[in-house]
Specification:
By secondary structure, this protein is mainly beta. The protein has 8 helices and 54 strands. Helices cover 6% and strands 48% of the residues. It has a 22-stranded antiparallel beta barrel.
């Protein structure tokens, strides 16, 4: 069955399940908050049973019980007015009540006696700065806060949060784990691409209603993540029409010409952005919509020189070539184009049923800088892709204390990496053209690598949430996910005739499936999860306790005989030829071409299926208020995660080449789950009005990280291979201090500092394999991980009024480690010199300042906001990489020895972070 047929079949199956489940179950999408409290007589303090409490502007409400307590579930995050009425008392309205996802907002009322009908008492809601039901470390950022931060995307906001580190490649690590341990959710649904653990879709800042970052022990609702959770709750429509148009343009403004070629030439439109947002009613009080569209173009800051034509080399003999010259114009080598959209429709079918659907998609095109192509930039391939997810949620309300949700979600991530769309394009040239000496650029040639990947996932989640007593809120549910992974990856080779002689002139050819140079994947794993979570709330204590069970079947297979793994090129005679006489010996008469097994026949005895994996993860958290403005919390949990699909499946057919050496590393669909045991303890205390201090210490013990095996011998002398296994381990310990002043009136700020130590056997799953192939001993001791950033200081400060505002954010990052080398001028990597330990020296520190300033103009019909954004305000160099022999980004001893090479080779703009970026823009509000 082909890939598309299988996907089509599962679409039909999931639609049927979705329709059936609408009548039997639900899912908690983690997009709701809760409001609770007491209603009492202001004079006597006695409870008022039967009082009506409603959330104004919604159909949510509840009546107080005999103790005067009320509980309102299923409240979307946001700011509301909450009102209460009771016969013989004045109606009270609490204004500006902020509700957060999965947290309880306490709102208490003391009603005054009154007999005048319609008389109201308004109270400005003073939300407690310390959340008493927060049992682990997390940060919640609302849409109004996001708009004040100098950031054009979620990634920059994450950089300002405690415990988050970016490595030299820009990957995010939460509290010392590998970047693959972060899971991304939208409206409670996992949108992580499990092939590479990136985001399937990007949600633009304008679409975010609440951003939740959980770095501590997260509840049992969340699975398949060990590092942390990034959960985005998106905006929806309302009963009032609203619109916004944002336009900005800019460029990189820097005087670092000695580093960044072409940076001094200013083009105010090299960065341009247009964004549109609309929302409002379709049927008032029944159906609403939300729409956001954004188009972004950024030329980037890394340029090459069009000095040579990719097709310019004409080979005269084995030692001489003639190179055709280009026009020497600058060519962008890290450009980005992205179009994204988010649409949502919410339909209140009745008092008890609500249906909402979100559509989120991105289309992008980009290129990654490659230094060797600096003089031949048009020979370098680019990447283009498409990500999309739809989230359909049906909610059924049993009562004010119980509700059900059902979610069906589909997500797809499709990308292509190639130079030309057609693999047989005549512009491709012979691979011999793509050669260069030591410390020299390519002066001709085309990138022959091509990759096409598509990952699809179908998800059904079904939960029930119930406030079974005034103290216990119970959640339980299940999830089913079916994935499809399709990959075709290869490097073009010269076509040959029937005698195996290369055809002249060069004609590109796609390698056969059996060629070790080609990787084809068509995999479809299954996963099932179930959990139960109890939130126990007392005035003196809040407890979160949960248990999660997960089942994963890779539907993979591994060779029965590990010494003969390549089904396309077997080594043992009995694996090549049939034993016709059954004597268990392949004699000469049987060693003939007609007696060979076909691939189909060989498959019947070649592989065995791997066993499914089962994961059990307990979670526990407790918050203990020590005063009315202080809370101590402790959390513990075991978090297990299936390795990403790349580790499971990439090259899992183990197609060994005929040459000697250690092949691999090969994927292993029989990998076990990785495991992290997490502990944390912390204190939150309001030390002054609107000023909260949060101190948290944490420890993580990480086991069964994916690594690579020692060489596995084969029946062919001198030929071995390595596959991925669970072997590496690590530990992380740290302390975070956060000082937050809520934006009240004109002023607010947040400052956080993190001290962290992250050590492990290997930073990357490939490190062990690289060490073995370079003749080094396997790692026998812990070393600082590549992203071990000892000190991180982040802050953001805002000052403004209704019609203007200025916000400045800053990061200080101490240097990350690198391995010194004394005989090699290459990038940092596995140490192969006896006596030198891994990651024992530090790169320079980095410091960043960003600015956002705006001015509002009220034109009655609509408002205009004019703004200025400057990223890397002081144009700091901020090295990301260094030469391992010097520890500097701008000097290596080899530039003194490589006299014959191009001296500009040693100028590495990719060793530095982004230079100063300036953007001017305007927003129109309706």
């Amino acid at each position: 069955m082909c890939f598309n047929d299988k996907a089509s079949s599962f679409i039909k199956i999931f639609i049927v399940i979705f329709l059936i489940s609408s009548f039997i179950g639900s899912l908690n999408a983690q997009t709701w908050g809760k409001i609770s409290g007491f209603v009492r007589d202001a004079e006597t303090g006695k409870p008022l049973p039967g009082a009506n409490v409603i959330v104004d502007g919604t159909d949510l409400g509840a009546a107080t019980d005999n103790e005067g307590r009320y509980i309102i579930l299923r409240v979307p995050p946001g700011i509301y007015n909450v009102s209460v009425s009771f016969i013989g008392y004045k109606r009270a309205v609490m204004q500006n009540v902020r509700v957060y996802t999965d947290l309880t907002t306490e709102v208490n009322f003391n009603l005054e006696p009154g007999i005048v009908e319609g008389e109201k008492v308004y109270v400005i809601g003073m939300q407690p700065m310390v959340r008493k039901d927060l049992t682990s470390s997390e940060v919640r950022i609302q849409s109004d806060d996001i708009s004040r931060i100098p950031a054009n995307d979620i990634g920059r906001i994450l950089d300002l949060q405690p415990g988050i580190v970016r490595d030299a490649g820009g990957n995010i690590h939460i509290r010392g784990g590998r970047s693959s341990e972060v899971a991304y959710f939208v409206n409670g649904v996992n949108v992580t691409d499990d092939y590479n653990r990136g985001q399937t879709v990007i949600v633009e800042n304008e679409s975010v209603k609440e951003l939740q970052v959980i770095s501590g022990a997260f509840n049992a609702e969340y699975g398949n993540a060990m590092g942390g959770i990034v959960n985005i709750v998106t905006k929806g429509g309302s009963n009032e029409y609203e619109g916004k148009v944002e336009i900005y343009a800019g460029d990189y403004v820097s005087n670092k010409d000695e580093i960044f070629y072409n940076i001094s030439k200013i083009n105010p439109f090299s960065i341009n952005n247009v964004q549109l947002s609309l929302s409002g009613p379709i049927i008032r009080n029944k159906m609403t919509f939300y729409l956001n569209l954004r188009n972004l173009h950024n030329e980037g800051w890394l340029y090459g020189v069009y000095a040579y034509l990719p097709q310019g080399r004409v080979v005269i003999d084995d030692s001489l070539g003639i190179h055709a010259k280009g026009d020497s114009s600058p060519v962008a080598m890290n450009p980005q184009d992205r179009f994204s959209g988010h649409g949502a429709i919410e339909w209140k079918i009745g008092k008890s049923v609500v249906y909402k659907v979100d559509f989120i998609g991105n289309k992008y095109k980009s290129r990654w800088y490659n230094h060797q192509y600096r003089l031949n930039p048009k020979g370098l391939r680019g990447t283009k892709g498409f990500g999309f997810t739809t989230i359909s949620k049906l909610t059924y309300l049993f009562s004010s204390k119980s509700f059900m949700d059902l979610i069906f979600s589909y997500k797809v991530d499709e990308n292509k990496s190639m130079l030309y769309d057609d693999p047989y394009d005549s512009l491709y040239v012979h691979p011999d053209s793509l050669t260069a000496g030591a410390y020299e650029f390519f002066k001709a040639g085309t990138d022959l690598f091509r990759s096409t990947r598509k990952t699809e996932s179908y998800i059904i989640k079904c939960d029930i949430t119930s406030q079974i007593t005034t103290r216990h809120q119970l959640k339980f549910g299940f999830e089913f996910q079916k994935d499809f992974i399709n990959l075709d990856e290869y490097t073009l080779i010269p076509a040959t005739d029937e005698n195996g002689v290369q055809i002249e002139p060069f004609i590109p050819e796609i390698p056969e499936k059996s060629n070790p140079n080609r990787i084809i994947l068509d995999r479809s794993p299954d996963r099932i999860a179930a959990y139960i979570q109890d939130k126990i709330e007392y005035e003196f204590m809040v407890i979160n306790i949960g248990l999660r069970y997960e089942y994963f079947n890779s539907n993979g297979r591994i060779p029965v005989d590990p010494k003969d793994p390549n089904i396309y090129n077997p080594l043992r005679l009995e694996h090549i030829y049939k034993d016709l006489n059954g004597d268990d010996v392949i004699d000469l008469s049987e060693q003939v071409e007609d007696n060979k097994y076909t691939i189909g026949e060989r498959e019947k005895f070649w592989y065995r299926k791997v066993k499914p994996k089962r994961l059990l993860s307990p979670r526990f958290g407790i918050a203990y208020p020590i005063t009315d403005k202080g809370v101590i919390h402790f959390s513990y949990g075991i978090f297990e995660q299936i390795p990403d699909f790349f580790q499971l499946y990439y090259n899992d057919e183990m197609k060994l080449s005929e040459g000697q050496g250690i092949a691999g590393p090969f994927g292993n669909p029989d990998l076990n789950p990785q495991k992290t045991t997490m502990y944390e303890i912390g204190l939150r205390q309001e030390i002054y009005r609107n000023l909260v201090l949060d101190i948290t210490g944490y420890y993580r013990d990480i086991r069964d990280w994916v690594s690579t095996s020692p060489p596995i011998p084969t029946y062919s002398a001198g030929v071995s291979y390595s596959k991925r296994i669970n072997k590496d381990f690590a530990f992380v310990k740290g302390l975070s201090v956060n000082l937050n002043h809520k934006v009240i009136g004109n002023f607010g700020f947040n400052v956080n500092y993190t001290f962290q130590i992250a050590k492990g056997t290997n930073s990357s799953p490939e490190d062990e394999y690289l060490a073995i192939t370079q003749g080094a001993e396997p790692k026998k001791q812990l070393a600082y991980l590549d992203w071990d950033q000892r000190h991180s200081l982040n802050w953001n400060i805002f000052y403004g009024a209704r019609d203007y505002g200025v916000s400045i954010s800053s990061n200080f990052f101490s240097g990350q480690p690198y391995t010194p080398e004394i005989v090699s001028g290459t990038l940092t990597g596995q140490n192969v010199i006896p006596g030198l330990s891994t990651n024992i020296r530090r790169k320079p520190f980095r410091i960043i300042f960003d600015l956002h300033a705006y001015r509002m103009i009220d034109l009655k019909i609509f408002n205009i906001e004019v703004f200025l954004q400057v990223f890397n305000l002081f144009d700091a160099k901020n090295p990301l990489q260094v030469w391992a022999d010097s520890g500097k980004p701008n000097y290596t001893v080899y530039q003194n020895q490589a006299i014959e090479s191009d001296p500009t080779w040693f100028i590495r703009p990719d060793f530095y972070s982004e230079p100063r970026r300036v953007q001017f823009g305007v927003k129109f509000y309706y």
